[in-house]
Each structure stands twice: as structure tokens, then as C-alpha cells.
Amino acid sequence: MPYASSEKWRSYRALFFIVLACAFFIVVGQTTLVSRSQGYDQLQQRSNADLNRYLLSLQQKLDRYKDLPGLLSSHSILINALTQPNDESLNGTASSYLQHVNESINAADVYLMDVEGTAIAASNWSEERSFVGKNYAFRPYFKEAMAGKAGRYFALGTVSKRRGYYFSYPIYKQQDIVGVVVVKIDLNEIESDWTDPDLDILVTDEDGVIFISTRKDWKFRTLRPLAQNDIQRIAESLRYGNHELVSLDIVKTSKRAEGGTLVTLVDGDRIDNPALDGISTRQFLLQSRELEDSGLTVVVLASTKSVKGRMFYTALTIGFIFIALVLLVMVLLTRQRIKRERARFKLLETNALEANEARVRAIIDNTRAGLITLDRQGRIESMNIMAEKLFGYDEKDVQYEYISKLLTQPDRALCWSHLTAADADQQDELFMEAGGLRQDGSAFPIELIIGHMDYGSIKRFIVTIHDITQRKQYEGELKRARELLEHRVEKRTADLTDANMKLLEEVDKHKDTQNELIQTAKLAVLGQMSAGINHELNQPLTAIRTYADNAQAFMALDRMEPVKKNLYEISHLTERMAKIIHPLKEFSRKTSGASEPVCLQNVHDGAMSIMYGRLHKVKAQVNWPKNLERCYVLGDTVRLEQVLVNLISNALQAMEEQETPIVNIDLHTDKQWVVLLVRDYGPGIPEHDLGRVFEPFYTTKQAGQGLGLGLSISYRIIESMGGRLSVENHPSQGAVFKISLPIARAPDNVVG
Asked: Is 492 a member of any domain?
């Protein structure tokens, strides 16, 4: 019997725990559902208020400019510019007037179009992105105005690529429409004012395309997939440039009977439901409202994260209360069943409650937030340690004092309006930023949350306080840094624009200077060549005269064989004279500048023929490397001859005090470059002038021997052929000029 009774008691106890568990889940579940419904209702009220505020802000922005095109359409300056299209001065006057108007109303742009849709005057007429001459007949706002209606339209600018809202109005001359005036405004400043971490704001057009958003990755996306003909129509109007109109990744939508729509979006940054096929999602409460007479719709997406947090804390609180009640019932039942152990269980229960209270108190005292409890009249009942540290009071010093003692004067009214509100009008929670007042009288910024703490029929409040001094400092520093950065960017942009304009003017002014200097330098060298060529031509001319006299004498004696021999010699001498003169013609002509394979042997022959007379006169010796006929570079024969003639001439001038000057030319090659080294045995170049030898007008020559342009022109010639020209002093004596040119393959018709 005792065993059977024990088994029966165990069965009853198991059944009791099963019923208790079912009751626990039912109570917690129902309470959580009620909490969710209330949370959604409150979230809907807050987001609806925000929607009204943002809608009013956008409406005010548009209302400032909507009547301006109609006002401008009656101005005589614009009408005269449209009715007299051939008078450019009227167009200029109209552009100046529109510029003045734009500066006064602070719009993005104001411009005037003729009946063909071509802008004939614009406020930005003096800028690079000027609308003047551009045709906008494809824009709907132009078509609406030409139909006699006031047009409204949002799109990306085809020139500026910036988002803008367009107001248009027809211009009449008597009963006929002669043109259209358009005012464009920039809506970016509205977007920058919409900042709420738990609220995303969108503005869509009549097709559902998002063009204003607090999230950059949602711009130019759609709330729903568009039909192909709609996409084609939008693309033809160039409304959004080349942006691909892809819909948002909406996973799930459900309408609420109380209003609004719950939508679930794919969001890789913030995860609310990671169990949805491995996709990170986030849930929002969506509400929208159309802006009257604009074709725009303002949409707010409020995050439901706060609702889920409320559900969690409600379930946790109800579960805790339920468990406490169950424990109490179990204690009472146990006391009735085992009377002999009543005193012991009572003691154990008391100890457990004290330990639990101590643990809860320890948690409250060690939390990083200040916690203050208030009675129904708003008087302080308790403070945790963090609150004492924040305000500098002990709990006993402010107990039963009003909470306003801890707040600055401007913030007390809002706090008291919440504490003293009627039950029907009172919000569940008040969140605000306020000024805290320490015991020493100093103020500091705090984040204040006042919530209800009902205990049975007794109504109380719990106040959560965070010190946000450091956050405010960070916000101020961030704002100052952003303003400083924007100022620097604007200043740098202006400097770069001015520098670019000056550079373009210099390029246009001096684009032909280099070629003219090269040709001038070549003609200067011709003067130096004239003495040597004169010497070379005198000998053949003397010989020709002698052979001609001999031929006449032999003809008088009827000896024809010597006559033929003399005529042959005369022919040979004239051919030699032609070869002497040929370098003059080749060197003086202008080159095309096109790069082609050049044989260094041909360059050697041309340079030496040019320099022959001068070399003979000063008894100079130029030592060239062997096998030049096998070496080809990518360049221009005439220009390369000019560079070598200039370097050899400079070398001879550096050694003009020597009886037998010597110039050595060496050759080095690798897979990509051919290097010619021109060395003299003169005094070399001063070390402090090595970096200046290629500057224009720099020279160490005496007056009358040159302008200092030869090396500068030679440097530009080698650079134009894709090569490099440099100089250094030889370790022992003299200077070495180094010519590096790209290696080239010999032409196919040349046999190596």
C-alpha cells in the first residue's frame, strides 16, 4: 500500500507539471501576441506622424517654386528672345536675366526653350555644362507645356547627371505658344535632412521608381517589378540615365487590418531572420501617401525591431511572474502537505527571496545605465549606484524629491507633461534628450527614457538615464570635420578648374612653338655648314673649268678621244657636287614627325656629310662604332641627324682650345633599347648645372655663339620619338650625352 500510494502521488505530480507547462506557454504566448499588436499600433502611429512631417517638408519645398515658371513666362525679355531668334544679343540678355533670377531664388537651373525644344538661354550659360544649344523636346515637362499646361517632372539631368525636379510653363505671344520656361530645383538637401536610424524614407515617382532615399543602395530601384514596356518608355525619356531599374528584394508582404503593410526585405547588413534559406532579411512597417498634384509618393519604412524587443521583454516578464506565482503555489501546497517542515521551508524561502533580491539589486547597481524609480507623483523612490555617480547625490539625499531637481529648466515641462498625463492620453514610454543637473550645479547632456512600472494597483515610473556627453562631443567633432572637408574640397576644385583653364590656354597658344624652334635650329646649323660646303664646291668647280678649257683645245686639234675623257670627268664632278648639296636640302626640310625604322648607318652618313666641312676646318676626328648598318631604331632620320649634329657641334665648341679635338661615339644595345654615347674631352659641365642643360635659353657659350635652344630642342625631339636624352660628366674628363631609343626591326626589303 505505501508503494502504491507513492506511485499514485508521482503520477499526479507528473500530470500537474504537464498542465503547468501548458498553462505557462498559453499565458506567455497570448501575452506576447497582445504585446505585438500594441507594439505595431504604436509603431504605426509614430511612423504615420513622421510620414506627415516628411510629406509637409517636401510639399513646402515644391510650393516655393511651382508658380515661378508662370511668373517668368510673362516677362518681355524672354518673349523678345523667342520671337526674334536671329538676334544673339537678345539671347544673351535673356541668359543674363535668367542667371540673376536663379541666384535670387536659389534654384538649380532656369532655362528657356523654343518650340522645337532647344534651349536658347539658360542661367548656366557661362558654365561648361551650359544648357544652351541642347534639345530637350523628349522631356515630358516640355510636351506638357507645349500642350498649354503647367508641367511637373522628376529626372536626372542629361548634362549635370544630378537629380532634379522640373517645373515648366508655356510662354504665349498673343494666343500662340512661342516657347517654354523651365525651373529646375535640387532635392538633395531634403534627403540630407531625413535622418532616423530606425526609419527609412523613400520618395517614388508615378512608376514606383525610388529617386530619393535615406539608403544609397535603394536609389533608382523600384518597389515592384516594372513591365517591359514601362522600362522601355522610361529609358527612351532618359529620365534616369543608364541606371538599371531593378526592384527591391522583397521576400514577403502582408497587409495589416489596422493599416500599413509589413514587408520583409533582403538585407545583408542587418539580420532579423537568418533562417530564411540562408538569406539575411529585415522586416519593416510600410506606410505611404501621395503628394498632391506632383505624381510623387512619400514612403516610410519603420523597422519592427523595437516591436520584437518589446515582445521579448514582455514574454520574459510574464514568464518570470508566472514562474514566481507557480513557485508560490507550490510552496503553499508543500506547506499543507508537510506541516512538520513548515518552519524550515519558510526559512529557505526567505533566504531564497533575499538572495534573489540581492542579485537583482546587484545587477541594477552594476548596470552602466542610471536607473531611478518614481512614485505616481513623480517623486524619487530609489536610485542605483550609476545614477548616484551621474548626478553626485546619495539616494537618501534626493529620496522623495521631485525628478525635476535632476533636470535643467527647459526640459522639465516635457517630462512633467508625460508624468501627469491622463491614463488614456499617456504614452507607454517617453524618449528624449535632455540636460542633467548635478549636485554642484553643472549641466551635462543625458538620454532619458521614462517608462511605466505598474505593481498591482500602484502606478509607478522607472527612469533610465545614459550620459551622452562623449557622444555629443563626437557629433560636434564630426560635424566640424565634415564642414572643413567640404570647404577644402570646394577650394581645391576651384583651384584645379582655374589651373586647367590656364593650361588649356597655354597649350593652344604654344602648340606650334616646338616645331618652329626645331626648324629654326636646323636653319641655324645650315649657316654653320655653308663654309664647309663652299670649300667642297670650289675644288670641283676649278677642275670643271680646267677640263672644259682642255676639251676646247683638243677639239681645235680634232682629237676627240681626249675630249670625251674630259667630258666624262666633268660629268663625274657635277654628280659629286649634287651629293654635296643634297644634305642641305634634306636637313632644311620639315619632317612629318612619324616614327619608322631608321638605320644608324644612314644617320651616320647624313650627319658626317653635314659636318664634313667644319670637321676638316678644325682638324677634328669623330670615332663611330662599327656595324651601324645592322642596327635599327624607331624614329625619324632627319630629326635624329639634327640631334647628332647638334651634340657633335657642342662637343667641338667645348674643345675649341685643342689642336686636334676628338669626339667618341659608342653603341650599346639590349632587347628594348639602343643607346648612343657621345663623349667629348672638354672641361665638362659644372655639377650644379647638370640639371639645367636641357632648359630653354640655358647656355655656357659666349655671346653670339647661340641662344641656348639646341639641347632643349634635341631633348624634345628624342622625347617625341619615345626615347630619352640625358647627360653626365665622364669620371676622367669631358661630358657624355646619352641617347636612348627604342630598338626596331629592319624592314623586310633590307638584307642583313
From this structure: no
Q: Based on C-alpha coordinates, what's the Rg of the chain?
A: 48
Q: pLDDT by residue (tens digit) across 372-389?
A: 888 888 888 888 888 888
Average pLDDT over residues 35-63: 76
> Alpha helices of 167-246 — where are they, by DSSP H?
188-193, 228-236
Cell digits of residue 254: 502582408
**Mean pLDDT lowest for which of 186-200, 244-258, 268-282?**
268-282
The CATH number of the domain holding residue 283 is 3.30.450.20
Grid coordinates given for 569? 670627268
Look at residue 24 and tell me if it is in a domain.
no
CB-count exposure of residue 666 (10 Å: 0-12, 13-18, 19+) = middle
**Could you give the C-alpha distances from 1 to 4, 5, 8, 13, 629, in angstroms and in order?**
5, 6, 10, 18, 127
Residues 639 and 733 grouped into a single domain = yes
Last residue of a domain, one of 166, 186, 206: 186
Residues 231, 373: one domain? no
**Is the CB of residue 462 less than 8 Å from the CB of residue 374?**
yes
With respect to residue 76, please indicate whether it lies within any of the assigned structural domains.
yes
Strands 461-467 and 370-374: antiparallel
Residues 152 and 213 in one domain: no
Q: Are residues 609 and 632 in the same domain?
A: yes
Q: Hey, what's the cell of 752?
A: 642583313
Q: Write out the residue range of the structural domain in which residue 73 sits.
A: 64-186
Please calculate the CA angle 612-616-621 and round it to the nearest 5 degrees. Answer: 85
Mean pLDDT of 332-345: 75
706, amino acid identity: G
The pLDDT tens digits for 706-737 are 444 578 888 888 888 899 999 999 999 999 99
Residue range 509-518: mean pLDDT, rounded: 55
Alpha helices of 589-732 — where are they, by DSSP H? 600-618, 637-654, 710-720
Q: Do the beta carbons of residue 171 and residue 77 sit within 8 Å?
A: no
The residue out of 257, 288, 306 marking a domain boundary is 306
Reported as a single tens digit per residue, the pLDDT across 649-700 is 889 988 988 889 999 999 999 889 999 999 999 999 888 888 888 887 566 6
Residue type, position 538, single letter: N
- Band of the pLDDT at 90, cuts 50, 70, 90? confident
Answer yes or no: do 199 and 155 share one domain: no
Q: Are 121 and 248 in a shared domain?
A: no
Grid cell of 532 as nine digits: 664647309
CA distances from 266 to 250, 276, 386 (A): 7, 10, 40
Phi, psi of 91 (to 5 degrees): -65, -40
User: Taken in order 504, 510, 514, 516, is the CA torsion positive or negative?
Assistant: positive
Q: Is the pLDDT of residue 94 over 70?
A: yes
Task: Judge if 703 and 735 occupy the same domain.
Answer: yes
Nearest to 650 by CA among 518, 530, 531, 521: 521
Q: Same structural domain for residues 176 and 196? A: no
Q: What is the CATH number of the domain that holds 704?
A: 3.30.565.10
How many domains does the chain divide into? 4
Amino acid at 380: I
- Residue 431 near residue 448, CB atoms below 8 Å: yes
